[in-house]
Amino acid sequence: MTTLLKLEKVSSAYGQSKVLWDVGMQIEQGSAVALIGRNGVGKTTLLNTIVGVQKLTGGKIIFGGEDVSTAPAHGRARAGIGYVPQGRHVFPQLSVMENLTVGLAALSGRKGLAQSGIAEHIFDLFPKLTQIHARKAGLLSGGEQQQLAIGRALAGQPRLLLLDEPTEGIQPSVVKQIEHALRRIRTELGVTIVIVEQYLDFAWSFAERYHVMQRGKIVREGSTREESAAEIAHLVNI
Ligand SMILES: Nc1ncnc2c1ncn2[C@@H]1O[C@H](COP(=O)(O)OP(=O)(O)OP(=O)(O)O)[C@@H](O)[C@H]1O
Ligand SMILES: [Mg+2]
To answer: Is 44 in the pocket of ligand 1 (CB under 6 A)?
Structure first.
């Protein structure tokens, strides 16, 4: 197995207030991993730190064998880290197609990657996006925006895709479609996936490994195939 992402004693803070404490994590290439924990434990901060939106105050981030700890966010995107942030953050005034095009920025300067526009497989994964390609993103439903946010991240042809609570506030039928698309992104495109998820059922059905955060620390990790969600529910539930 090859390690795609390795965090070593990663720390981060908002001003004087430390939020991440010596976080260690190892993500194998091709795997699907769930990061779980109660509200406010630091899950989003950890993803922001991995993508470079949030500054590291200590430790190291190694991606694809290279130390990216001090690389700017756009440099990490170019290295192949894709991000679907919590709350989706699509550009409301831009059309679906324009939002997808923004995702192409991660390709600039990368060797050996096709840059001929939005790859067809994105529309194949999310057929709805074809139908609504000209619509302003601000007018879309939450589920449509989520599909667009995932499509935008895929436009940058990531090797690693980080998703922060992609099922939050989305109706169950669309959650199923998103789960199905994520499985295909993994199996057909070979993208490694780390997903922040509050629903253990979803985490267990999608990921083969889990990491639990409490107060800015990873307090437990393991295999979702060897342990049941019930065994760790007490660490996650309020
Ligand atoms: N911009 C900020 N400035 C100061 N403190 C912040 C900021 N963003 C988050 N925090 C604090 O950092 C801690 C971790 O927040 P974070 O958003 O990473 O948690 P989370 O696990 O993603 O929570 P949720 O499940 O609600 O999304 C919380 O105590 C939060 O109040
Ligand atoms: Mg969060």
So the answer is: yes
- The confidence score (pLDDT) of residue 225 equals 95
Low-confidence ranges of the chain (pLDDT < 50): none
Q: Whose CA is nearest to atom 11 of ligand 1?
A: 40
Choose which residue among 41, 167, 215 to substitute to test ligand 1 binding: the one with the highest number of ligand atoms within 8 A of its C-beta: 41
Q: Ligand 1 centre and the CA of 62: distance in Å?
A: 24
Atom 23 in ligand 1: residue holding the nearest Cα = 40
**Complete domains list, the chain, with CATH:** 3-236 (3.40.50.300)
Q: Encode pLDDT of 46-80 as tens digits.
A: 999 999 999 999 999 999 999 999 999 999 999 99
* Per-residue confidence (pLDDT) for residue 112, from 0 to 100: 60
- HEC letters along the chain: CCEEEEEEEEEEEECCEEEEEEEEEEEECCCEEEEECCCCCCHHHHHHHHHCCCCCCEEEEEECCEECCCCCHHHHHHHCEEEECCCCCCCCCCEHHHHHHHHHHHHCCCCCCCCCCCCHHHHHHCHHHHHCCCCEHHHCCHHHHHHHHHHHHHHCCCCEEEEECCCCCCCHHHHHHHHHHHHHHHHCCCCEEEEECCCHHHHHHHCCEEEEEECCEEEEEEECCCCCHHHHHHHHCC
Say what the pTM is. 0.95
Using CA positions, which residue lies closest to atom 10 of ligand 1?
14
User: From ligand 1's centre to the CA of 186, what distance in Å?
Assistant: 28
- Residue 209 is predicted with a pLDDT of 97
Residue nearest to atom 26 of ligand 1 (CA): 39
